[in-house]
Write a structure and sequence with these properties.
The complex is a heterodimer of chains A (283) and B (165). Chain A has 283 residues and is α/β, with parallel strands linked by helices. In chain A, 44% of the residues lie in helices and 10% in strands. Chain B has 165 residues and is α+β, with helices and mostly antiparallel strands. Chain B has one domain: Alpha-Beta Plaits. Helix content of chain B is 28%, strand content 21%. The longest helix of chain B is centred in the last third of the chain and has 20 residues. Classes of the chains: A alpha/beta (283), B alpha+beta (165).
Chain lengths: 283, 165
Amino acid sequence: MRLRSLYVFHLDTGACNGCEIELFDILTPYYDAERLGVRLAASPRHAHAMAATGPLTRQAYYAAKEAIKAMPPKPRIIVAIGTCACSGGIFYNGYPIYRRPESGREGQEYPRRGGIFELVQDLRDEGEYVGPVVYIPGCPPRPEEILYGVALALGLVEKQVKGEYYTEEVGFELPEYPIEERIRLSLRERLKYVVGYFDREKVLEDFMGLVAKAKSAEELHGLIQGYCLKNPDPRVSLAMRVLKREFLRLKEKYGWEVKGSAEALQGEVRGLQVSADGDAGPR
Amino acid sequence: MAVTLKYPFVKIEAPPEYRGVPHINPRLCIGCGACVNACPADALLRIDDYEKGTRKIVLDVGRCIRCARCDEACPTGAIRMTRNFEVATLDRKDHVEVVELRLHRCPNCGSYTDYTERALEKALQILPEGLFDGDEIRKRAILCRNCRRKLTVDDAVEASREVVE
């Protein structure tokens, strides 16, 4: 059935309000869900669909049940907005979250249970008709995601995800890096205290490139100076200096082969400790 | 002037910093389970089957809160956040991504260990050359826990015997 316009009743079943903020964004002129025929209805008696947010607390369970029962018998679409409504999200094992007795809290089942589907299943067991459930994960989903989900419910767009099952047949690769793997992993751990996940891999990759180019500790020092001058971001410069200090420290500590003379390295490490001590970190 | 986004009818891309759904690259995954330990919402599962000798790493995007901790924890860079956000679906099974890997089998007793073949390969890559004498550690690394313990005790007993004689 191709739906033409959808009257949506919004029900909060214990959400943190993040999804609500995103849901109201799609009614602004910029996203404008009304051009798809979506309007918010004030009562479940007027609604084709219910936009449910939140992990379904035990308090909200009865109200949500009454609301779904009050909806017209068809189509009764449920739009689960946010990860919580899809599967319980971060609150999955909280004490106030409603769960059917057979869907445990610590199980190994997948897809993960929880959220509004527990109520839908209860209603279906009672013989009530409940239409399809559209799952829109995200914590919170951005307005485009909600628009996409609504368009999917209306039949305007095609589904894009598909469950995947990979076995050993896909092959295995163990990437090689210019520096030893154990040092790379140590540097990566150290870098966690300095830069966020977004820049980390790129900074480490650039550093490894410089190490591969450098023939001695002095040369590495010069290359990193050049890199920091070229890169205007002070956080990246700090991360590079911290990486170099850690790299030379590791090389020295474990007595692995160090390029360059020992005295130069000593001075190098001491100078760096003065210049790059601004970074915070437990080590 | 039209301000409204023509979104579901045109393609748009999320900004580069956007945290979309994570994705496991099955060619890089070693099945160590670091992501499973890091995941606060239990969106990642590690399911071991010692009868069949397989380990499944299961990612359920519908439970994921996109905190990127798995991305931080992964030692091989197999699990990565993507910019993909068009994951709405009518079937929850579409959200699940499974990587099934073989568990390592102990060459001595033939039972399955609690790590995968790929994880062993990775561990041997990290292991520095010449830190331990000979290939002693490489001989032990491939054994299961019980066999390793037994070998260590046997070696110790033999060494003490040599001392006594």
